[in-house]
Amino acid sequence: MAAATEVGVQRWDSSSGTLLQDTEELSPGTIWGLDTYTAGDGRTLLVGAGNDHLVYRWDAVTGAKAGVPLAGHRSSVKCVASGSVPGRGALIASGSDDGTIRRWDAATGELIGVSDMVNADILDIDLLASQAGISILTCGDSDGVLHRWDAATGQPLGTPIETGEMVGSLVSVDIAGEPRIIASSESGLVRQWHAVTGLLVDESSVGMSVAAMACADGRVLLATGTDDGDISLR
Predict the structure, then answer these.
(1) Distance (Å, rounded) from C-alpha 71 to C-alpha 214?
(2) What are phi and psi of 200, to 5 degrees?
(3) In the sheet where 55-59 sits, what is the strand order?
(4) How many helices (H) does the chain have, and how many strands (E)?
(5) Is residue 164 a contact partner of residue 172, using CB atoms and an 8 Å limit?
(6) CB within 8 A of 185, min separation 6: which ones?
(7) How far apart are the C-alpha atoms of 84 and 186, rounded to whole Å?
(8) Model pTM?
(9) Going edge to edge, which strands form the sheet with 209-214?
(10) Integer distance in angstroms from the first to the last C-alpha of the chain?
(11) What's the pLDDT tens digit per position in 162-203?
């Protein structure tokens, strides 16, 4: 397990809950967000959104840097997402206060595309390799808009989804074979949209933050959190 902090990244042994020893590489300053992906050699790597405009990669087990930081953003990087994209391999996406979403080849660090945003703060992004055969990159912004792209090509997917209020956090996951975008909002309402069509399919949950996990038996667990510290699992 790992967490982003004001001084870098902290890690815990997921079995025992023991805090793992810090390394100098894990302390570059404020990290706003984290994600993980599996490298070509089988290692699990952490990806971090740096306040210093950089995107960092670390070996999740040793804490050592995995390549040089990815440079190109002109302001603080606020969120990252990563995963395997059919036809492209492992990909990293990063969202910044400079108003751009950048896509990187995770193996080489090469910049492969930039998507510009307009008049809104980027709050969260997520990457889904859908069972439907398409990889979907989703971004939520402070204007309450969900933007979608084909992660492999960078081409927009449909028209932006207008949620009507600022997006809190978002996840994307396959549910019953359909790709879904699930986002929380400043009012505490959690909604689900079909990730390709953009149609609203559910708004029965509440929470200020949201997370989802696909289980080996096909179930998808949805966790929502409130300002009072309560967590609901369904």
Answers:
(1) 32
(2) -70, 130
(3) 31-38, 44-50, 55-59
(4) 0, 20
(5) no
(6) 144, 163, 164, 165, 166, 167, 168, 191
(7) 31
(8) 0.92
(9) 209-214, 220-225, 231-233
(10) 22
(11) 999 999 899 999 988 899 999 999 888 999 999 999 999 999
Which one, of 141, 25, 135, 28, lies nearest residue 79 by Cα?
A: 141
Segment 13-58, tens digit of pLDDT: 989 999 998 889 999 999 999 999 999 899 999 999 999 999 999 9
- 25 SS3 class: helix
C-beta separation of 134 from 143 below 8 A? no
Distance, CA of 181 to CA of 171 (rounded, Å): 6
Nearest to 56 by CA among 27, 13, 86, 14: 27
Map tokens 């359909």 to a residue: 178
Q: Are 129 and 137 in contact (CB under 8 A)?
A: no
What b-and-e string marks burial along 54-81, b requiring 16 or more CB atoms within 10 Å of the CB? bbbbbbbeebebbeebbebbeebbbbbb
SS3 191: strand
